[in-house]
């Protein structure tokens, strides 16, 4: 399913079972590559037809007879392949729950990062599992920027400097020239990523309101910008009074700075658990907010969300940094 609304150019659900089959077989999961292959096949068929038309009448008759037989066989094979493909696309089991996972950035050309981080989840625990593939180009650029940040900060020992508590240290930093240059490299993909995540969240809300999940309760899990997508999805559902759609929510490393009232509004459309995972020494997320906004006192990925309804879990002893979320 693809949507191109609200300024979002890529939005598609892919069932992880289907992706896992293709991944294990070494096949590409990129729809663009599949479209290019199909177009090339169509062009080859058209060229062959033109060549056949230029041949003499006798050869045409012979070839047409052969082509007719071949087309009948191909048609039968195509029909069988289509039916087999339809059976393959259908989930093995149709559960009463739906799990939607949202990744926060991408580092691979073939978009496997949309699925690999979630392949470790036990199958069918939360029902039919779908991964959201969204804005792969922008997320790839953001992934490159995050890697640059990590390597630069680690290279000067910044990780050790920020190991204890990131908030007061970064707040007091006066940026040297090299870090100002790093800001210039990072600001653009980070700012675009924040904007795209917000818009994608609105499209996700529209999709759930449109009953893509077939009246089944939905569990949402996301990290980094994927968690931001979920936040704006919940905001949109709340503003439209769409209750009873989302059951559980799990967000970690969330790059969102909003008021207690806004978070309470999000909680109103979640019927089950609402869990926020954070780490106080997330030096990458702290630097990104230091570079883009100069403030992070209420960043959900760095501190607890002050809402009783939300379960805040500190991951300091489990997660070393933002890069470990995927």
How would you describe this structure to a colleague?
This protein has 326 residues and is of the alpha/beta class. The protein has a domain of 228 residues. 49% of the residues lie in helices and 12% in strands. It contains 10 helices and 7 strands. A 7-stranded mixed β-sheet has the order 1-3-2-4-5-6-7. Helix 9 links the parallel strand 5 and strand 6. Helix 8 packs across helix 9. The radius of gyration is 24 Å and the shape is globular. The two termini are 24 Å apart.
Order of helices and strands: EHHHEEHHHHEHEHEHE
**Helix content range of the residues, please?**
40-55%
Instruction: Provide the β-strand percentage band.
Output: 5-15%
Shape verdict: globular
State the helix count.
10
Strand arrangement within the widest β-sheet reads: 1-3-2-4-5-6-7
Primary descriptors:
alpha/beta; 7-stranded mixed beta sheet
